[in-house]
UniProtKB/TrEMBL annotation:
<dbReference type="Pfam" id="PF00691">
    <property type="entry name" value="OmpA"/>
</dbReference>
<dbReference type="InterPro" id="IPR036737">
    <property type="entry name" value="OmpA-like_sf"/>
</dbReference>
<dbReference type="Pfam" id="PF13441">
    <property type="entry name" value="Gly-zipper_YMGG"/>
</dbReference>
<protein>
    <submittedName>
        <fullName>OmpA family protein</fullName>
    </submittedName>
</protein>
<dbReference type="InterPro" id="IPR050330">
    <property type="entry name" value="Bact_OuterMem_StrucFunc"/>
</dbReference>
<keyword id="KW-0472">Membrane</keyword>
<dbReference type="InterPro" id="IPR027367">
    <property type="entry name" value="Gly-zipper_YMGG"/>
</dbReference>
<feature type="domain" description="OmpA-like">
    <location>
        <begin position="104"/>
        <end position="221"/>
    </location>
</feature>
<keyword id="KW-0998">Cell outer membrane</keyword>
<dbReference type="InterPro" id="IPR006664">
    <property type="entry name" value="OMP_bac"/>
</dbReference>
<dbReference type="InterPro" id="IPR006665">
    <property type="entry name" value="OmpA-like"/>
</dbReference>
Amino acid sequence: MKNLIAFTALSTTILVAGCQTTDPYSRETKTSNTTKGAIIGALGGAVVGALTNTSDGEQAAKNAMIGAGIGAVAGGATGRYMDQQEKKLRERLDETGVGIQRVGDTIQLVMPGDITFATGRAEVTTDFDYVLQDVGLVLQEFNKTIVYVDGHTDTVGSYQKNAELSQARANNVAARLMQEGVLGGRLVVTGYGESRLKVPTGDGVNEPRNRRVEIRLEPYTG
């Protein structure tokens, strides 16, 4: 699997060369949507395989980071490390619609489904793709962070279908972060379907606040 992830990263680098656009939020030059589509098509199997291999929980993420030579954050420096990461995220995600919550040394990004995905679809919308690029760049810089990507849905549709949809959405968000250079092993990717509603509702209720992907960031402290 290490070779698979390395191949994915190398192939992505080759594909993105020379095909870029300007991020409307940060004004930076970034990979075009056409190129990203080609990447997903060409590397789909590798990305899914990597995600499947690394979605086994916190310990698997720690093992992957150890294997990649990423050291832990020193205990006394944890707060400052997360402060700096939060500051960078707030700067890049200002006015994007992403909610940023800080509880202790944990940062949570809440990405509402109505601006991230079309109804009933798992593909990230074109406009929001730029946001994930910004998140990926910050996570690549702050590489001593374990990244939990959690997908959630409302109660419209069957329980099983919602579980599958939430997992597909979380996988696509995680894949985009990997395309920005985030180590796949740091990602813990889970689809919760309608089992963790933000706003409790009955069955068959179209509640936008329940359709979301949350990215939870926790420092790797060993």
